[in-house]
Design brief:
alpha/beta, Rossmann fold, Dihydrodipicolinate Reductase, domain 2, 9-stranded mixed β-sheet, about 35% helix
């Protein structure tokens, strides 16, 4: 009887040892690479040296001059950079890639990453072209990868608090109308880099101007608030108020989403006198207004007095770092909830809305979604 007991002890010790190894493995930094750095938000990942959850192992950038600028500006190693995307992916073998090039290039990133089993996070939006989005989703589903979309407003405590408050229909009633204001004075006016401006003002590479750049925010949040419902129709009006600066794309857009029993009005602009990312949501018996990422106002029939709120991300479990969010998803520490802000299901609807909005503005009529 000794040997079975000894064997049992040995197996138990071995099991515990393997469990520790597995646990340690999940704590290892996620090997991430970048595909494109022309987006103005790409420097974000170079400014988080105090975090150890991500290991940047490669950067694909075909523009050698831009690559040299980043090497000097951020003190990066030359060996990190590749001018051939396939070579980088095969040589450094990342677990995940970040798409920081043009919106049009998002499809190319997924086409190269997905068959290799590499997870992808793109900068908003997922795509300005619904046809591209459909292909991207098919690849993600086929190869079992995460395909997430990062929005700045996903880091806002006020965005999550709005969602939570509106779950109380007894207080605020069913959502009837939402108004979103997103934008700034214009990319040229605020001084974005030439490499970013070149494709941001290209009707193909960006898919539009302010309509795509800032129209996506309201579509993303409204889809979250309505738990994945698609609008019945999309109606959009675009203008170019500054043709001398933006001759090829719109700089002003208003998008109306009709849900049959609710409306969303998305005001996307490169003409606001000041930066704006705020929203108003009205229910039958109350409203929730977010002035910025933390300051909010609410009012309902139950109190008849406006309440001021100031919310913090840590109170609501909101990630303020998209790379940490992505890493924790990959490591299985958190789950991407269906129709949540980063989710593929939400952003497929956003892509469909943006595509319909562009068609509506071009045709001068509402576009009905299937």
């Amino acid at each position: 009887m000794k040997y079975p007991l000894i064997l049992l002890i040995f197996l138990l010790i071995n099991y515990q040892h393997q469990a520790v190894i597995a646990q340690q493995a999940t704590q290892e930094p996620v090997r991430m690479a970048m595909m494109g750095i022309s987006h103005g938000h790409s420097p974000w990942i170079f400014n988080r040296k105090d975090k150890s959850d991500v290991d940047l192992v490669g950067i694909y950038e075909p523009d050698q001059k831009l690559a040299a600028t980043f090497i000097e500006r951020y003190g990066l190693e030359k060996d990190l950079f590749f001018s051939d995307a396939d070579l980088m992916l095969d040589q450094v073998k990342p677990e995940a890639v970040l798409a920081f090039g043009s919106i049009y290039d998002h499809l190319m990133v997924v086409e190269k990453a997905a068959p290799r089993g590499i997870h992808v996070m793109v900068e908003k939006p997922l795509s300005a072209y619904y046809e591209h989005a459909v292909k991207m989703k098919a690849l993600a589903d086929q190869h079992g990868i995460y395909l997430l979309t990062n929005f700045e407003t996903s880091w806002y405590a006020s965005t999550e608090k709005t969602y939570q408050l509106l779950q109380d229909e007894a207080e605020f009633g069913k959502v009837l109308k939402a108004v979103f204001h997103h934008g700034h004075r214009g990319p040229k006016e605020i001084g974005v880099g030439k490499e970013f401006l070149d494709w941001l003002t290209d009707p193909v590479q960006n898919g539009g101007g302010a309509l795509v750049d800032f129209g996506c925010y309201g579509a993303n949040i409204m889809t979250y608030l309505l738990k994945g419902r698609k609008p019945v129709s999309v109606t959009a009006i675009t203008n170019t108020f500054k043709p001398e600066l933006y001759p090829n794309v719109d700089d002003e857009a208003t998008i109306i989403l009709d849900y049959g029993d609710a409306q969303a009005i998305i005001q996307a602009s490169w003409n606001w006198p000041f930066d704006r990312k705020d929203m108003e949501v009205y229910g039958v018996s109350g409203y929730v207004i977010s002035e910025n990422k933390s300051k909010m106002r609410t009012k309902s029939w139950s109190s008849n007095e406006e309440k001021l709120l100031e919310v913090r991300p840590e109170e609501l479990g909101v990630y303020v770092d998209p790379f940490s969010y992505f890493a924790d998803v990959i490591r299985g520490k958190i789950t991407v909830n269906e129709y949540s802000l980063y989710s593929l299901s939400n952003n497929m609807i956003v892509a469909e809305i943006l595509d319909a909005a562009r068609q509506s503005a071009s045709k001068g009529q509402s576009v009905y979604l299937k």
